[in-house]
Every structure is written in C-alpha cells, then in structure tokens.
Write a structure and sequence with these properties.
The structure holds 2 protein chains of 2 kinds.
Chain A lengths: L2 H9 L1 H26 L2 H8 L2 H7 L10 H23 L2 H9 L3 H4 L6 H16 L1 H17 L10 H29 L2 H24 L17 H7 L4 H24 L5
Chain B lengths: L1 H17 E12 L3 E2 L4 E2 L3 E12 L3 E5 L6 H8 L7 E6 L2 E2 L4 H6 L1 E4 L11 H11 L4 H10 L13 H13 L5 E5 L7 H16 L3 E5 L3 H7 L2 E6 L2 E7 H8 L1 E6 L8 H5 L4 E8 L2 E6 L3 H8 L6 E6 L2 H9 L1
Parallel strand pairs in B: 5-10, 5-11, 8-9, 9-10
Antiparallel strand pairs in B: 1-4, 1-6, 2-3, 6-7, 11-12, 13-15, 13-16, 14-15
Classes of the chains: A mainly alpha, B alpha/beta.
Chain lengths: ~270, ~325
Amino acid sequence: MLNVYFKGLTKQWKSIFVPALIIGLYVIMIAAIWPALKDQAEAFQFILDNPIYQSILGNLAGAMFTSWEGAFYLYIFVWLEMVIVFITVFKPTRLVTNEIDKKTLDVALSYPIPRWRYLLEKYSVYLTYNLFYPVFIMLSGYIGTLALRPFDAEASMNYTLLFYASISVWLYFFALGSISILISTIFLDSRKALAVAGMLIIGMYLLVRIGSAAESLNFLQYISIFHYFSPGNIMANGGFIVGEFFIVFGVGIVCLVAALWIFQKRELTY
Amino acid sequence: MRFINTYKILQMKRMSSDVILKVENLTKIYGREIDIRFAKIGKEVLAVKDVSFSVNKGEIFGFLGPNGAGKTTTMRAILNYLRIQKGKISVFGLDHNKDSIEIRKRLGYIPGELGLYEDFTGEELIKYVDKFRPINQKFLKELKTVFRVNLSQKIRSLSHGNKQQVGLLIALAPKPEFLILDEPSLGLDPLMTANFHKILRKLREEGITIFLSSHNLSEVQSICDRVGIIKEGEIILIEEIENLKMKFLQNVRIKLPTPQAIDEEEIVKLDSVISCERVNETTLVLKVKENISEFLNWIKDISITRITIEDASLEEIFLHYYE
C-alpha cells in the first residue's frame, strides 16, 4: 500500500523541503531588518505607488509597506509567486518525463499497480512536501512578529488571514502542478512538456501583471489562475474568498483527474 | 456423449492453461496519417503485422530479429504499454489489457534499455520490489551468490554490467511464473552470462516460463527450447531449436580423392543446395537445407574420400533468413 508514495517521501525530501526552509529563514531575516527599514517605509511606499511597480505587484499592490504585516506580505508573497511558478513548471512536469528520460518507467509500471495510482502517489509526494510552505510561512510569520515586539510595539499580524494566504500558496502548487502534470501526460516528453507548461504558467503569471497595468487590459487577469484566491486578494478582502477558492481548486481537480485518466489510457510511446 | 464432451472441455482447459502467452494477429502501427482534403499529414509506421505465436508453460522461447524488427514492440504490447490496432494477446489465459494488473502480479520484466532508480542502493531496490511482488528469500540468497554485485552501493555508482545484474536480480528474485526478458545478458561478462544461463535453465526446470529476445544467437541456441524469428515486423519462422538445426540447414564438407571436375553450378541447381564453395582443389563446402536425401542421391555416383555433415549454427540459419 502506498509504496510509491513512501518511496518518494523518503527519497525526495531535500528537493522540496529545503526551499520551504529557506523561505522560513528569509522571513526571520526580514524581521531582523524591519526595525531599521521601518523608518524609511514611507519612502518605499511612495516608490511602490508608481503604476509600474503596482502592475509588477499584481494583486499584492494593495499591501502597504508601512506596516510590518504589509511588508511581510510584499516580501514573502511576491517572491513566493515566482518560486511557485518555477517549481510548478519544473517539478510536476518531470514526475513522469524524468522517469522516461532515465528509462525507469517501463520497470516501474511492470509492477502490479494501476498507472493512474502510480502517478497519483508520485504527485501526492509533491503535494505533501509543498505543505511545508504554508507551515513555514505561518511559523516564520508568528516567530518574526513575536521577535519584533520588543523593537516595534505596533508589529502585528492577522494570523487568520495569514493562514488563508498560506493555504492559497499550497492551492497554487496544487492547481498549477495539476496543469503541469496534465501537460506532461499528454506529451510524455520532457522538453515539450516543460516548454508548454512554462509558456502556460509564466503566461498566466504575466497576464495578472499586464491586466493590472491598465484598466483597458483588466479582462486579461480573469483568465489567469493567479487572479483568484491570491494572498493579495485575501488581504484586500480581509477573509476567505469561497468562490475564488473553488475556482482554483476546481481547475486543479479537473486537470489532475484528466492527467490520471490520460496516463491510464494512453499508450506509452517514447 | 456427455462424458466425451466433458472430457474434451477438460482437455481444452488443460491445453489452454499450458499456454502461458498467446499472441494472435498482433498488428501495431505507430503514428497516424490524417487525410485532409488535398494532402496527408503525419506518417504511419508499421511496427508489427499479424504476429502470432504462443509460449508454453515451462519453456524458454527465444525471440530473434535485428534492430527495428519488432521484438521490443511485441514485448511492450504484451505488457500493455502500447495500444494495438489489431489482434489479441492473452497471458495466463487473461486479457492483456483488461486483466493487466492480475497478469503483472505473476510476471517479471527486464526492458532492453534498463533504467534503475539511481539514488537507491541494490538492497533498497530489492525491498521496494518486495512490496509489489514478494521476493523469494531463499532464491534471493542463491542469486546473490551468482550475481556478485555490491548491493549496498548506490545504483549510480555501479558499472553498466553491474546495473544489469541488479536489474536481473530484482526481476528474477520474486520467482514470477512468467519472465519477459528483453536482451537480458546485455553488458554481462561471459562468466556472468554463463551463470545467468544456468539460472534460467533452473527456472525452466521449476516450470517457470521465459520469453526472451536476444541479439546473442549462441545464447538463444544454448538455452532456448523454441525460437521465433521476426523480420520487418512479421514472424517468418517458429521452430524448436533442435528441429531448426536439423531441418533447415546443414553444412556439408566433401573431400575428393583427386581434383575432379565437379560442376559447382550443377550442384547449386539442386533444390536442397543453397550454396557450394570450393575451399581448395579437393574440398567442397556446401550448405544444404531440409531434404538432404535429394543431395545424397545425387552425390552417390561421385567418388569421394570423406563427407561430414554438421548442423548449421543458429547464426547461420538466422543469416540465411535475413540475406
């Protein structure tokens, strides 16, 4: 039972656990420089109000750099979106294609396990390790805020919102990862899959930026997953956005089911 | 009457249970050609066409053919990795597509291009396989003495030959009822190959069925019971190794007492003679197929010092079919 899953858990811990840990440490570093940075925060905010920066920040444009919470969101989630893009393009796409490149798939699938389950167990390893991101964001947010109190009495954090924002990070890993894995099962070729997944995911990331740059291009945001249930939206809304959650989750589920079905049914020519 | 019918059914069931693998009219085309109004897009490549054969319980069936003949395609179709256009494949009497999980519980496989998880050690790999197909611990011990590869080393640090040994070890150790081996001795040194053949013979004695493809004709000759030759996607011959050697091709060496004017072209005109070569003035070497009596009848009037008739090697037979 779950042999592929546990094999992956024991063998791949470094590849995903380490980036999550780095993000955790990054927050601690920001907390350490925040007391010094706070005095110049208004000047930074003035720069960030520039329309170009506002479009770069996308949905996080509403976060105010003048507060610890706003700075935390800007520092963490802006970078994290890029990390999500990078990981979701490379990691899930290579779950299958890497086995094809290394010629291990034929032997792996000769064992009595349905192909869909084999893929699902492998994907579950990726999803499990990505749970470390929300966990480390929450932990580091809490520790960072606590550590700041002696230096900045106003430093506070809405942990409920931070929890929702952390969920959104994992949800992006899931939805975008499912898109990537769907593409990889369609092509069964690492280069093609990486190219298509890269174009699609980076394209969606850019659409939100382009869409928020000008009002006339606003509609472009709606065809990007990054527009829905983003940490910026959660912060602006001040709560859980049920409808957006189900849009992102739905895309993830549909793509994952399609990927499992295709992998089960298609022939393995490579 | 009723008794006879029951007997027949029982006999048929027994016969069918003795056949482990049955491939009927297997046809596989790669790619797709789409006919649009003015042109055709894509390309179809016929990999195998109407391939039919069966492998019986407890036999080693050799599958011979050059690169691209369709050996691996056939094997991958049996494993349900490929969608076939036509034909039927049954393993243990089960449908290769519908019952593939049940089939895989009882099957071991080594692909032609073997890849193993590089970050595993041999021992870890054995433990991993054990969870899918329980390893026969007694047999594993025996295999460890034969395949003298360091199982505590990471796969990535092993040589190609040692990786192949680990691959064979994990395929054989569960002692599955049916083994599909695509070029299994690739990369093994001669000593290891000989040991591996011993193991295969032992497995055959225990009733395990083996379907193997190989480029190594002496390997096929020494361990296989039957052989199927595939050429350009079509089976051109299925025969027992012993019959193949006796029935199909013989090397005849004739020593003449004095240089005689034997017309070599005349000999080659005989239906049974494929070729005739004069090695020196008094020695002729001929390749004779099937009906050797025709040739012996012709030669009886010629004075000869000595005649030796040898079975041709599988290699010669193979080349005969391919030339």
